[in-house]
Every structure is written in structure tokens, then in C-alpha cells.
DNA sequence: CCATAAATTATTCGTGCGTATAACAGTAAG
DNA sequence: CTTACTGTTATACGCACGAATAATTTATGG
């Protein structure tokens, strides 16, 4: 009987690989079905490595959650690129909405992971802190976009008003993202981007079409009603 | 050493007691921290009863989830009483929004439970079905309220339009409910009812105040900013 | 008041878990 | 080529879990 051959990976690579395997397991089997043995099998290593790199299973899971939230918020923010001379605020906001309500962020895996961890907030302050930070970042980013759009349209844009708008739009995005990702089959999820854009226009008191209601993007064909981007594990 | 004395309970009482103990455990310790021993200790009985009444732990948890969703949707619908000669549609919609964004539905325990079970939808069709049914009921109820309000204001109220509005408002409610219940501390959750009412007015194109923006209810004093309805287990 | 059935407890069993430890192997420096 | 280091594997331990079974108590009906 020979010993398993193995590769030595750089510290960060191995850690990342284990965290991603953890997320895959949680998405696939839930937190209760996520065992050290399964995680390490998914990552192609042996259980001992969890202790070596993270000290305990619990610590690994916490790190994996922080890793996930980092991905989600980063991707959401990047979808609307706010450079020095970037696109006008309206288009940034539009892209932000689109980025949150289309693949890959609109995914059953992601919402499943997200919900599972939300359920932990109550019992562990660490999860609460990570969530809180991610939410704050999301909200402040959205608030800035809203302010820009209001200014461009000559609408009142005092701080508290922008914040209220951001809270409402954020709620709208969250709710649509969840139900859309879960895809109960009560409506075609492809209608969500347009629906959110139109709703945001009304919430902000913008004229219809101010955010470019028609179609998914300036260029790119209208999406056929794809079922689910099926074999999408938990990529980078 | 004497044997524990016990009470014989009616079938439904015992089942309900076990389901409530299960929800308490899941809210407090998460699904992974919910064991048969803990559940039955919470209910004041011995582990054998789970097998006796539900066959297995898994079956008990599924029943508890269905029980929870039944409570949530029932309470949400009842908050806006739609009787034969009930209040006008606007006030019903207003009460519906209030009912979802104030205690007891706005609760960290409830959202924690809800999220935990959402995380199971992906791996078990039973959970998916329960969720789907609850969501459908919620959405259709909301759609009817929206239609009533639009009619009263002489606005267009074709079916597809009502549905789109209902989807958006439902998303708004869900999102605000979640973040409000989690109470990240980024804003006072007491602003949510007003915020939601104002946002709904804008979404539907109603004149400001059409849903009675000011104050929480026709009669009843404005709520002081209570922190959390603290020792609130998981009552009926 | 007794007999019968059902509800509940007490105890046991096997399994899979997280973790700890020791042996091994890939890597890099001298 | 050798040596030291550490990433990695292999194995074992103790414990808590879900489930099953047997024993006992409560309630019910004649």
C-alpha cells in the first residue's frame, strides 16, 4: 500500500482552495452536511490540513464566509465602474442594478450560501460583524450612486434623503435578488433587471427611461430565457 | 431512583410543542446545533418522543418549517383584514406593510429561522415546495391589494401591471424586513414602516400621503426607539 | 376496579464526527 | 548529496449524535 502523492502549495493557494471547497460543500449540503472530511475530499486533500491551516473547522468556516462576502461586494461594486472620468451616474446605477440581478450574482448557489450564513449571525458575533461590514459597504456605495443621479437631474439630494433612497433601493435589490435566485417559477427571472430599473426610477422620482429602461445593456443581444447556468460550481 | 413523572398530552398539542421547541433550537443554535436531545430538553420530554411522533429528526424539522411559514403568512395576511366591508384598499395595503415591518414579524429570531431554512431549499425539494407556496400566497395577496388601490385612484390596473408592482413591492418588503430584523445598527429600524409606505406610494405612482405616510397608525402613539423586544422566545 | 392500549421514559447500540498525533515526503539551502 | 524544515498523509481516540428497543406509567372503557 503506497502513500498518496501530493503537491506542495503556497500558503495562500492552499488556504483559498480550502475555503472554496468549504463554500461548495455548504452550498451543496448545508452547514450541517459540511464535514471536515467532505471539505477536504472536495479540495483533494486529507482532513489534517484543516487543522494545519485554520486550527479548527469552525475557524475555516468563518474565513470562508468572509471570503464569500468579499467576493460578492467586490463584484457588485465593480459592475458599476466609478472611475475618475467614468460613465454618467445614471448608467453606473443601472449597471449596479444589472450586476446584482443577473448571473453570476443571481445564482441559487450564492443565495443559498448567503442565507445559510445569515442564519449564523444570531449565535456568533463574528458572522454578524462580517455581514454588517458588507452591508455598510453596499449601502454607502449605493448612496453615492443615488446622489450622483439626483444631482444630474437637478433633484434635491440632501444627505438624509439620499440615505433613505439608498435603504429602499437596497431593500428592493436584496428582495428581488433572493426571490429571483431561488426562482420559484412564479415568474421569469429575466424580467427582474428591467423591473428593478423601472422601480428605481420611480423611487427616485426620475422620468421614465432615465436609467435606460429598455433592454439589458447598450450592446449585447436580449437574453433568451435561460433556465439556470447549470454546471456552475463556485468559481474564483 | 424513581422514574420521571409525565403528562399525557393530546396528539396535536405534543406535536406542536415539539415543533415549537425545534424552532426555538434552530433560532438559538442553528440547524447544526439542533439535536434531538436539545429539542426534547427544550420541550421538557425525552428523546424517544421524536421518533414516536415524527419518525425521525429530519421529519420533525420539515414539519417545524411548514409550521413556521404557516404562521408568518397567516399573520401577514391577517394584519390587513380584508373583510366583506373592510377598510379601503389603501389602508389595507398600509397595514400589510406595517405588519411586515414592525414587531412581532420584524424579529431577529424570525429572520434567522427563515434564512436558515432558505439555505435548505437547494438540497431538499420539500423545503423548496413550502417556500414556494408561502411566497405565492404572499405575492397573490399583495397583488390583490395593489389592484384595489390602483382602482380606487383611477390608475391603470391591468393584470400584468399589478403583478409587476406586486413583485417589486414584495421585493422591497423582503429586503427591508431582512436588514431591519438583522438590525445592523446602520439606521434606526423604526424608520422602516414610513420608508416602506412612502416607497410604495412612489412605486405605484400614488400621490404623496395616499397611504397615510405620517405616523404608524391612525390611533396609537408614535413608537419610541425600542431596542429589541428582548425576552421573546418563539411564541405561538 | 380492573384490563387494555397508548404515551412516555430509560437504556443501549452503532456510526460518523472533530481533533490529535505520529509518520512520511516534497522542497530548498549548504 | 545531505540535512533540516514543514506541508501533507495516515491512523487513532473519544465523544455526541440519531435511532432502536425494552420497560414503565398514564389514561380509558367496561
Automatic annotation (TrEMBL), chains A, B:
SUPFAM superfamilies: Homeodomain-like, Tetracyclin repressor-like, C-terminal domain. Residues 35-54 bind DNA. Keywords: DNA-binding, Repressor, Transcription, Transcription regulation. It holds the Pfam family TetR_C_6. Residues 12-72 form the HTH tetR-type domain. Residues 214-236 are annotated as: Disordered. InterPro entries: BetI_C, DNA-bd_HTH_TetR-type_CS, Homeodomain-like_sf, HTH-type_TetR-like_transc_reg, HTH_TetR, Tet_transcr_reg_TetR-rel_C_sf. Residues 214-226 have a biased composition (Low complexity). This is TetR family transcriptional regulator C-terminal domain-containing protein.
